[in-house]
Amino acid sequence: MNTEEQSITHAIGSAEVHHSDDLPWYAVRIFQNKHKRVVTYLQDKHLDIFIPQHYVDHVDASGHIRHELRPVVYNLVFVRKTMTTVEMHGIVAQSNLPFYVLRTERGGRTYYEISAREMQEFQQMCNPDIAMRHYLSETEARLKPGAKVLVTHGPLKGITGRLVRISKKYFLLKEVPGMGIALKVSKWCCQQTDD
């Protein structure tokens, strides 16, 4: 396991330790292929980080096929809000790395906060061992039509999202700032909701 993989594994592990709290999360956009450096910087500031990952097969230098976890996207990480907004602004300002926290409006100073419940559901859906999953860009997710639902049966019971169709199959779509994830679900396990 290389240093980047260890860093990412540690980042996911640190996020999963605190599922019982109600702290919101920030979405952090990274530029110029500086994923590893930004993750290391945020970890050095003792922040809890979540990085969506999936399994990728690749051929190594010796010609063997390797099955390993890699980030779904290299320009987005999620950070738990364990400090005040002013302190987070300071962490961003101190860095000379190319990243920023997504904001509620362009040019504003207010960071967009993802509720603890929404983030916990998103993390559950990002489990790399789950099959029949699609990751979508924020724009692709926004354009998918579908009703808001609550899953009432099965392994996704209690999770909310939108019931959408992809390749003639039903999926539960969960959106967070920067991306969306869709998991295969039976429409009979979903109940429409207005929340």
Question: What is the secondary structure topology, with strand pairs?
Answer:
Layout: H1 3-16, E1 25-30, H2 35-44, E2 49-50, E3 53-59, E4 65-71, E5 76-80, H3 85-94, E6 99-101, H4 116-125, E7 133-137, H5 138-143, E8 147-151, E9 160-166, E10 169-176, E11 179-184, E12 190-192
Antiparallel strand pairs: 1-5, 1-6, 2-5, 3-4, 7-11, 8-9, 8-12, 9-10, 10-11
Helix pairs in contact: 1-2
Number of helices: 5
Structural class: alpha+beta
How much helix is in the residues?
25-40%
Net shape: globular
Low-confidence stretches: 1-20
Task: Give the beta-strand count.
Answer: 12
Whole-Å distance between the termini?
A: 43 Å
Sheet with the most strands: spatial strand order: 7-11-10-9-8-12
Q: What is the mean predicted local confidence, pLDDT?
A: 86
Major β-sheet, in short? Answer: 6 strands, antiparallel
| Elements, N to C (H/E) | HEHEEEEHEHEHEEEEE
In terms of DSSP E residues, the strand content is 25-35%
What report would you give on this structure?
With 195 residues, this protein is of the alpha+beta class. Helices cover 26% and strands 33% of the residues. The strands form three sheets. It has a six-stranded antiparallel β-sheet. Strands 2-5-1-6 form a four-stranded antiparallel β-sheet. A two-stranded antiparallel sheet has the order 3-4. The longest helix is centred in the first third of the chain and has 14 residues. It starts with a helix and ends with a strand.
